Structures are given as structure tokens and as C-alpha cells.
Amino acid sequence: MKRGGELRGARLAYETWGTPSAARDNAVLILTGLSPGAHAASNAEDPSPGWWEGIVGPGKAIDTDRFFVVCVNSLGSCKGSTGPASIDPATGEPYRLDFPELTLEDVGNAAYELARGLGIERLACLVGCSMGGMSALGYMLHHPGSVRAHVSISTAPQAQPFAIAIRSLQREAIRLDPNWNEGRYDDAHYPEMGMHIARKLGVITYRSAIEWSGRFGRIRLEPDKREEDPFGAEFQIESYLQGHARRFARSFDPNCYLYLSRASDWFDVAEYGHGSIAEGMRRIRLERALVIGVETDILFPLQQQEQIAMGLREAGAEVDFVALDSPQGHDAFLVDIERFGAAIGAFMAKL
Amino acid sequence: MKRGGELRGARLAYETWGTPSAARDNAVLILTGLSPGAHAASNAEDPSPGWWEGIVGPGKAIDTDRFFVVCVNSLGSCKGSTGPASIDPATGEPYRLDFPELTLEDVGNAAYELARGLGIERLACLVGCSMGGMSALGYMLHHPGSVRAHVSISTAPQAQPFAIAIRSLQREAIRLDPNWNEGRYDDAHYPEMGMHIARKLGVITYRSAIEWSGRFGRIRLEPDKREEDPFGAEFQIESYLQGHARRFARSFDPNCYLYLSRASDWFDVAEYGHGSIAEGMRRIRLERALVIGVETDILFPLQQQEQIAMGLREAGAEVDFVALDSPQGHDAFLVDIERFGAAIGAFMAKL
């Protein structure tokens, strides 16, 4: 692994849609944000809707009638791939904090091995959203020429201090929870409080003030839905955050969260270019790319998408840059299917 | 008090600079943000620099050679005025959560009584920064005609859901700290962890991503200044936040923080206008006003300053609206003394 550790017998969870062509030149690989698993869309084995159901499917923007689509759960995650919550075969116990230091380049390299394992020499398109966009840059930096086209969505060529501050505080909330216990929690003693705070802070930065002003305004909860506590939730926005936190806290492993969060802070294309993002980006070999950013995204601001677009252009790729005015901030790619579907579909149709 | 409680024998801490005119028509009253005390600037009794040292003083933007300047510590705070940390004369114990429900109108009304107590019938100017800007609106709504001119800085005519979400999460971090203990902490069992998280989240929203990118970038701490902890601070931005949290955690009372934070969420000029901010604002009687906002402020966005300016204009005041491009976000009024001093000084010179 990039920082020196090693994993033996690591596994990756992935799902596929569509059929590989004889030449295996129609593969689209999707790298995800921090929390989703490989279930991007419904399929025969799992008919439940996936996290990108509106984008991936027959006749959709990422058209599974045309492409052989693969979505992989990140190395270090807890949705089937090997991560800190997995059993270490050497000890029979979960890795926990003995899991080696993880970088997004490791996540990208693991995904590259998956593609090779599936007999794919060169991807028709590598798609990366949010953290997955950084993993995708890592993939392409380490394997130049292995990707023909790239879709980069709401991501960053390097972690900037505002995003680092947010993630550091999320990690701190988890680590300060006495139940975290240096990573040795169990279901009965679980850092639920820390995960709640981390998730709420995440949701606050994933959406936008303008969306919430329109959607929640100052609407209050019905009196019978308020807590007795004098400082308990009173406004709808508070119970919206509470719902998100409740759904997330037990469905994502806290140690995996810490590892992937820290990996995001570490990511920096400039490491590949003697301190220059533009120079680092020049190592990437692509034919064409689509770079999408959202004007209301405060976590991965538009300016960082412009840096990626310029860098790929200077590296010789033909780049479409699309700035969307979706009100939903960073999360727009998950919810503003109309705008994102149109942009991605138009690009994919040209491949 | 607005929500029905009452306080007996409440005190307000205040400081003054300059000399009242014979007619007592040269008074400037400053209402502060959530955390500062009454020490806005150095004076004979306390020569240490105040929180607005660059703005208040002889020949400065708020010229103490011309004006009799008063700064008051908010009711409900812990810097000398009566608040949840004060002793309840009825029990001899701190009020803690028995302190009555506090609103920013109560903070404004208390400040109005202070002015009356100082023999001031009508303020030459009422200045409100951040939370103090909301308290000032409360003051003017409840006492129309008691203020000649007004300076409104980086505040809001009503709390919007993004700000409510941030403050709700800050309160939750404090309340979830086992040492908070329903408000019954002491120095030995103090909700330090909760206060740290609350303050860091505050600082994140008080500044701007653009300032931090320029100031901290991805600069790392010297190896000998890093923590041993695998998830400990590694970047300068993390130790900057840690320094802020350390300085704040023990210097501001957690229960006072909860009361003032909740009061900010409750504030809404529309309550005075049958649901309309503009109609509520029309109850304010002013000759002139200066409304200042900062383009990089994410907590009290420029749009809310425009609402205040428009409202005061429709209420018949002559309004100067200034949008500053300070990079420091919400905190700019505390640090960008050059831009703020020029704007405030130009306005005060016309009074």
C-alpha cells in the first residue's frame, strides 16, 4: 500500500450491469463517495433501488444496454470490501486500528486490480463521484493509459483546509465518544453519539443553505413531535438532521469512517507534480473527460472542479466542463437526477 | 421576559468611553456577538485591548472624542451580566437551567433599560454585530423612536435553517457531553469535550474557505508538534482550530452558550409583521442606517443583510448598504479593521 502497509487476501465487493463486449472495451467503472456500497442500481440479484438508480440502467445516462457497468465498494469501506471492520486472517479478529494506513490511491489501485481481474485492459470510462473522484484521479495517476474517458463529479485535486477542518471535526466527534474506545467498540458499546454528530455535520456540508431556506424555512415541528428537553429539536431542520443521523449511525462502521475520512485529507495530486497540481495532472493520459461541479457545493467548491478540468485539458484530454446550478450542494449528484442525467448522458453518448 | 419568565435583581455589565454631552444626545450603544463581553476597547479602568480595539477609540471609526460610547454584556451571558451561571438570589445557587427562557428581545430590552438608566432618552446610534445585530433589531422593534441611527453588521432578520442547523449541532455536542449533566457541571466535571466541538464548528462557520486556503493551504505541523494518536492533528488548520477551542472552552459558560444560541434560533422579525419580515421591519423608526455584510459570510449571508437594508429603507430610514469582499467571512468585522473602519467611520462622520 502507498504508505507501506500490506493486506493479504483482501476482497472487493462489486456489482455489474449490462454485458461486456467481446473486446471488453465497453466497461464503465464507478468509484463511489465515502458511504455508498456497490449497489448503484437495482439488478437481478438485488432488485432494491441503488444509490444512483436514476443514472445507471437501460436507456439511462449510463446506459447498461450499451456499457458493461461495474460499481465497486471502496477498499477500506464496510459494505463487503475489506476494511478495518473485516476479520484479519492473521489473528481471526477485526483489524480495527491495526488496518494499515489507507490512501485513496490504494482505493484506486484496488479498483484497477478488479478491472484487470474482470479481463478489462482499458476502461471505456472511469466515473468518480465525491471521494470516488479523488480515488479515480489516484487510479489514473498510477495507471496512465488504462482509461479512455473519465467523468469527474464534485471532487477535488487535493483536500483544502475547509474540507480538512470539517472532516477532522467529524473524526474528533467519533474519537471523543467514550464508546469509541480506541476503535474497540461493539454493538452494545457503540460510539453512537460521535457518529450522530459526524453525520449531522456531514449532512450540513453536503447540502446548501439556499436549498434548506426554501425547503424548511422556519417551519416548526408539531408540538407532539417535540422533545420534552428544553434544548430538544423544535424546528423541522433539526429533525431532518436527526433522521439522517439515526439512519447512518449503525449502518456505517466508525473505524472505516475514520480511515476513509483521513484518506480524503491526505489526497493531493500535487504530490505527483513536485508540489504543482497542474504538473501532477499532466501524468494522466485520457482521450476525453467530463468534469461536473455544482455552484452551491461548499465542501468541494466549483473552483476545484475548474482546476481538474484545466489540468486534464493541459494533459491533452478533450474536456467538457459543466457547472450546474443545482440547489442541493455537494449531494446534488445523488438527487438532482435531471441535471446530472442530462450532462452525463450527453457525454456518454459521444463515447 | 418575552416568553413569560421573570428575573429579579438582574444586573448588566457595561463599559463606557468618552463623555456624554449635556443633552445626552451623543450616545452610541454597542450590542455584541454571542461571546464577547463589554470590554470593546481599552480604557482607564482596563487598559488591556478590547475586542473592537481598532474601531472604538479617540479619532477611530467610532470616535470616543465625539461620542459617549457604551458597550454592554448581553443579558444571559457570563461576562458580568446576569445569566444562567449567576447566583439566583431566591436560592443562593446558580440558576443553571432554571434561568428563564431567554430571547434576543430580552437582551435588547435589558440594553434599553441600561440606556434609560444612564439618562439617555434617545441613542445617537445603536450598533449591533452578529447576534448583537438581532438584539438591536429587538431593541428597536420594542422601543420605536428610541434610536436615531443604526449600524447593522453581519446579522439576520430571522434565523434561517442553515444557521439553526449549525447552532443546534453545537448545542447537541455540549448536551451530549456526559459532563454537561443537564447543566449541573462544575470545574472538576466540565463539558470540555462538548465545548471544544461547539467552538470548532463555530470557528469553521465564522471564517471562510477562501481565507483558509490562502492562509493554511495544506501546510503540515512539524513532526514534533504532531500527536502520537494515528488520527491526531497533522495539518496546521487542525491545530488552529484546537487553539481556538482551548482558549474558549473554559472562558465561556456552557449553559450561557446554550441559552444565547437558542435565543438566536428563535429570533424572527416576521413575528412582528404577521409573518412578513418587511412588514415587521416597518415598525422600526430610524433616521438613518448603515447595513454592512460580507460576501464570504456563510452563517449570516449577504442576502440577509440586503433584507435588513430593504426593510429599514421601506420603514423610512435613509440606508447605506455596504457589501464588503473581506475574505474572513462572518468574523471579518473583528479582523478586517481596514474595510470595516472605513465603512463605519464614513457613516458615523455624517451623524
TrEMBL record, chains A, B:
Which parts of the sequence are annotated with region: Important for substrate specificity? 33-36
Please identify the protein, giving its name as recorded. Serine O-succinyltransferase
Instruction: Extract one GO molecular function annotation from the record.
Output: homoserine O-acetyltransferase activity
What NCBIfam families does its record include?
Answer: homoserO_Ac_trn, PRK00175.1
Reactions mediated catalytically: succinyl-CoA + L-serine = O-succinyl-L-serine + CoA
Task: Family membership, please give it.
Answer: Belongs to the AB hydrolase superfamily. MetX family.
List, in alphabetical order, the GO biological process terms annotated in this UniProt record. Answer: cysteine biosynthetic process from serine; homoserine metabolic process; methionine biosynthetic process
- State the species of origin: Mizugakiibacter sediminis
Tell me the ranges covered by the AB hydrolase-1 domain, including all copies.
28-332
Q: Which UniProt keywords apply?
A: Acyltransferase, Amino-acid biosynthesis, Cysteine biosynthesis, Cytoplasm, Transferase
- Its job: Transfers a succinyl group from succinyl-CoA to L-serine, forming succinyl-L-serine.
Subunit description: Homodimer.
Q: Name one GO cellular component term.
A: cytoplasm
* Annotated localization: Cytoplasm
Query: Where is it chiefly localized?
Result: cytoplasm
Active site positions: S130 (nucleophile), D297, H330
**Could you say which enzyme class this protein belongs to?**
transferase
Q: Which InterPro entries match?
A: AB_hydrolase_1 (IPR000073), AB_hydrolase_fold (IPR029058), HAT_MetX-like (IPR008220)
Provide the residue positions that the database annotates as binding substrate: R199, D331
Q: Name one Pfam family in it.
A: Abhydrolase_1
